[in-house]
Write a structure and sequence with these properties.
The complex is a heterodimer of chains A (about 750) and B (about 100). Chain A has about 750 residues and is mainly β. Chain A folds into 2 domains: about 1-105, Immunoglobulin-like, CATH 2.60.40.1120; about 235-750, Beta Barrel (Maltoporin, Chain A). Chain A has a 22-stranded antiparallel beta barrel. Chain A has a 5-stranded mixed sheet with strand order 8-14-15-12-13. A 4-stranded antiparallel sheet of chain A has the order 3-2-5-6, with no helix packed on it. Chain A starts with a helix and ends in a 5-residue tail after the last strand. Chain B has a 4-stranded antiparallel sheet. In chain B, a hairpin with a 4-residue loop joins strand 2 and strand 3 (about 60-65). The chains are: A mainly beta (about 750), B alpha+beta (about 100). At the A-B interface, loops of A face helix 2 and strand 2 of B.
Chain lengths: ~750, ~100
Amino acid sequence: MISHSWKMNHYRHFLSSTKAALLLALLFGCLPLRAQIRGFVQNVEGDAIAGANIVWAGTSKGTVSNEKGGFFLEPITGKTEIVTSFIGYANDTLRWRGESSIIIVLREGIVMNDVEIASQRTGMKLNLATSNTELIETADLLRFACCNLGESFSANPSVDVSYSDAATGAKQIKLLGLSGRYVQMLTENIPNFRGAATPFALSYVPGPWMQSIQVSKGAATVKNGYESITGQINIEFLKPQSEEALDLNVYGDSKGKAETNMSVNYHLSDKLSTGLLVHMENNFLEHDMNHDNFVDMPRVKQYNIQNRWMYHTDLYALQASVKGMSERRHGGNMQTFVLVHPETNPYSIDISTRRWESFVKNAYFVNPDKGSNIALILSGSRHVQDAVYGKKFYGIDELNGYASLMYETDIDDIHSLSTGASLNFDDFRQDYSLVADGVRNHDDEKECVPGAYVQYTFNLHDKLVMMGGIRADYSNLYGAFVTPRAHIKWAPNDIFSLRASGGKGYRTPHVLAESHNMLASSRQIVIDKHLKQEEAWNSGISASLHFPLFDTPLTLSLEYYYTHIINQLVADMDTDPHAVHFHNLQGTAFSHTTQANATYDISDAISVSAAFRFMDARTTYNGILRELPLTSHYKSLFSGTWKSPLELWQVDVTLQMNGGGRLPNPYTLPDGNLSWDATYEPYQILNAQVTRLFRWGSIYAGGENLTGTCQEYAIIDASNPWGGNFDSTMIWGPLEKAMFYAGIRFKFKNKQKN
Amino acid sequence: MKKRILLSVALMALVVTASAAIREVTLQTNLHCESCVKTIKDKIKFEKGLKKIAADVPQKTIILTYDDKFTSSETLAEAVRKTGYQASIIEDKKVEKKKKK
């Protein structure tokens, strides 16, 4: 993002300061010019605006800016006014005097409160992106109680979110039918939430902090490293350079969760701005609706704070951030939370986490004529976690350091090049006991991976885009490895586009750091030595159609992805139902995913969308190729939005229909029954929310899981957590019945400056 | 006497209520695209008494339906001007009698 903003800032500077440009403009103004006009659309902070409409005033002829904010516009004889518009920004009318290049700067014009930028583009596909990318915007995040990142995908057809177990409240995502481990998580386009942050990462990002989420499926760009296999999820936080305002959000639900969020921006000068994001949540009630003597959800108390800075001049930009988080999760037997006789010996789960993150992004525009820029990204994090599961424990102190130096340049209007080098360092210091009252183990694992990449892009007026990249990295644990990736997009017109992608990805497995919630069971944990790097190819193709039907737009898309896994960290829970065995893949493993989407605005007031996804993900367990356990065969999603004529009221409804699947092999109990069902049936989840907007903010109320779907007896042998059959990991569906919530959002603007 | 006063007040209230009407004002503006419409709509939608916003982009007009008990055409035109667009009233007509209470 920074590099794009540099590019545009520079062009603005270049055009305003170069006499040659003026001469050319005057000259071309006198000629019947037929060459295309090249331009960029950006906001006042210099960030590219993708998807802006650029039309000749008084006509319907024009174009749309691409993901870099760039566009090509065909001149029309006699027309000199170019009108640019984008939702959330005031329109701009530019008088064209024949320039071959123009910069259009849009100012935020309608951001009266954060709900007002709600647009018709909910969950839209980024049609102009080279990869198959879905954009979840602020408006989407406000449609439901998106208290955190994990809850932000409730209306997204591509990302599945489910509980990892019935005891810790940990949630996991799945993309393309495979574990979220294979999705590279990014914040502000910097790799994040790796290793020990993985199990609970979805709760570490408060919903009101997020500006948008981009979900890219399939092979990703090589710029961000080699770890993406099934895709990337990038989170953009609220920006300090946005309008000066104070936002407050207070939330409460029927399960006893209360939450407060605050964000404030302050502009110290035209060039320097800062922002503060604060989050506090407290799940202060324990409840046991299925009467298994275990709390359905752990009591969670979290404090989260982030301070951001942005400094920019015409040729330089700097972004910096520091973030700290403290969280405690307390679950287990209900008796854990009351004073009881010591002999009752309740089972308790207690997970304390402290996490610190920081990053600095620098970007400098080197050669204005070539649009060249150089960027240096530095980031670091420390994750300290102490987890106690009954009489077992796991503690980690993880350090991560990351540096990335990138250089980008346009060779000409069609060809561009990007190259860079990176260094990633991980240090996992772990203390653990995998058996009750067992021996304390300690290990220290360090991995250092320097690497470099080069990426070439061919862009023929956004109609044909081909991007190929390759990177080479060297790990002190696994040696050298190469990551090739390629994308192609063909969009001959505004109606049809076709994308294809292919590429390889790798990741280093960290069994306990990523799966220590498995300790919330009596399963014996067996970890093979010499675990290999996970490695897979991913390829996919997607097509989309966008055309008006009865004067309102209909968008249809169809996509298919295949992941061929070369090596995988297999968690075998089938061979021995009282154990989980982590080992290298011995055989084949793959995933096929086919998804169809349709979105349609029935009227100005009602918009609907539907999606269906079929998944076939298999892995070899003990020599037998079997489908992945706890993974639904299909998912369909229907969502609808109704808005009142003035859009002061909004109702959102989403129905999720999940297919059935299998559970890990059960065993036979002494009474002849199975320990748990071998399969689970399809189930539905209904969410709904009503929002009322006001000048000062909004009030919202809604319900989750209104169908009341709930996995009864989610914990196996819950009455005997110290016994050999206790298991909380057999989770395929919701753990709680219907939940109701309400909240209020305030926005106070600095009227003197806005 | 007291009854007469009360009756008079009630009658006046009824007349006032009955005379309150849903009106439609057409404003000539300098908008030129759908995004302009959205900009204006998002900025004026909280105006008291405003019922509906429609626009005719080729004609560069905005048609606002409002309850004249709570606002006036000039108030709404001023609200549009505050968004940065021009607004002059070209028509203000009654479109529907408000239901008598």
